[in-house]
């Protein structure tokens, strides 16, 4: 993997740049794809990180990734036409592209997966700040009447009200602008949060919370619309992760309706990039020829993680798990498990034909999810929400804005 040579040539051709004694390609760091060793921890580095001396030098380092790369890995969204939505104080939505965009769009940032495939990202500064302010107001009211509630109960109760049976699909005519800070996507240099309603609007708790949740996703939708509508980017499904998705089904349904795209949520929804970086680090030991070049660290040899016989045996066991699960196996695995949050949707099989260059990489992520199945628990929603035995996942489609609209994929 390398940089866009045409862009580098254009930059170097700028008159002011051409006059410099250096070339851009000599200043840029060498990009490393997932599974490539990025060096080892030095004695000085180990002492800096751990003055007690417990951490020893020689630890192999994985290529570092930012929120974008770790988010893709954490959600197993590294194949084309898949993507993820990372929701927190700010929010971004990202899709792995089948082709380059036809022209420049300021609303879309171009990044790559850890394997080097091009991805488009829509990033918004605003997401939960305005929402948290309103939820905090309800919490203050509960405390004022002598009935304080914990944050989990407070958020869960308010969020569930947004998808109750008596809620209007159009939020009852309520309107909310969630811009606590400036928002480039909306052309706002400064934040001005605003809630408004007409005299005829139906003001209720459910409609109010539904308005808050839909408006929270509205800034990031601007960039997503540029990709899907202006550039024709195809999206098969998105995976949501972040604390807002820990409340069963609520944010998942709202986001599916807002993006008009099926949304999946995994058991690690609240873990974010930390889980993704952990998978990237462990992937070093299963990346084919790269794994065989790793140094024989004495502590790793004792654990069977080096590239010798023990490491080969471990990789052999892993390869035995890489076969697709039999049809319906994931459903049977979930049948006797119930996730306390009630919203796990885990992919346990893959019948697609990935690009040959990324086969090992994609299969390792699937293997990681199979390990997760052993320790995690799965939700089994009651009808009419059903699972698809052909894909082994629970599904909420874009039409799932009410309890009666959760259906398997077609």
Main β-sheet description: 6 strands, mixed
| Ends apart, CA distance between termini | 36 Å
Going by helix content, strand content and strand pairing, the class is: alpha+beta
Pick out the low-confidence regions.
296-410
Number of strands: 10
Please give the count of helices: 15
User: What string, H for helix and E for strand, traces the elements in order?
Assistant: HHHHHEEEEHHEEHEHEHHHHHHEE
How big is the Rg?
24 Å
Oligomer: single chain
Amount of beta strand? 5-15%
Indicate the overall shape: globular
Helix fraction? 25-40%
Q: Give the spatial strand order of the biggest sheet.
A: 3-4-2-1-7-8
Query: Mean pLDDT, rounded to whole units?
Result: 76
